[in-house]
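subagent[fold] <- orchestrator: predict structure for attached chain, return tokens only, no commentary.
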Amino acid sequence: MVSLNGGFLHDGDAMISERRSAVIFLMALLILCTVAFPHEGPDPMADRVRRDGQCGGNEHKDNNKCCRLCPAGQRLVSSCVKDGGVATCEECDSGTYMDHPNYEKKCLTCTNCRDDQEAVTKCTHTQDAVCRCKVGKFCPDDHPCEVCRTCSKCGPGETVARNCSATSDTECKKISPPPDSNAAVLGVVVPLVLLCLVIVVTYCCCKKKEGRCDCLSISQKPGPGDEEAPPVRVRKLRRIPPAHSHQWS
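subagent[fold] -> orchestrator:
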């Protein structure tokens, strides 16, 4: 009796263990299916909005059905079959893009950079190309860039304050002359000219006599304490006629 009871208890424990294993297996399978195949049906918030007669923010109303939007980089191929279902979408073709969730049958055409521009970012399925002016040209940010302008060059007497960029022109500023530059030149040239004049005048006008220059002594005027030299008197000589010019009577 004990053995029977013991055998019965042993079989019961085995059945419980098998049931637990089956439950664990089913839960694991359910989790795996949820991860591998996410739920694409209507969410509770969308159901509440649809009850008010409108579709959710990520849905589009098509033939009285609310269909889920296509993700960025894809376009619509066919609408959903049931309310709250997922529309059939496919990736944008080459040369086209779609940068937001949509319900459009055609993707947007990629921008082609002009000859005076270069591509900063190439066009992909989810974003458009980004262009900018080439080196040596610019286009202001506050104006539509219909054409890139040539960067300006600073003129004579100017220097570059800010280099030209893709969005702004060159900025120039005037060059200030160095201080006292003219005074420095005059301070060197004028003394040299005066020195040359003194040398030439001294060489041409002065005669060396008894260790002094006559022209310098003549040009000097007597001062208040100096005595004036008496004037030199010149005696006139009488002309005597020759002897042979007289006749004797």
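orchestrator: received. Logging for downstream: The chain has a mean pLDDT of 76. The longest helix spans residues 2-36.
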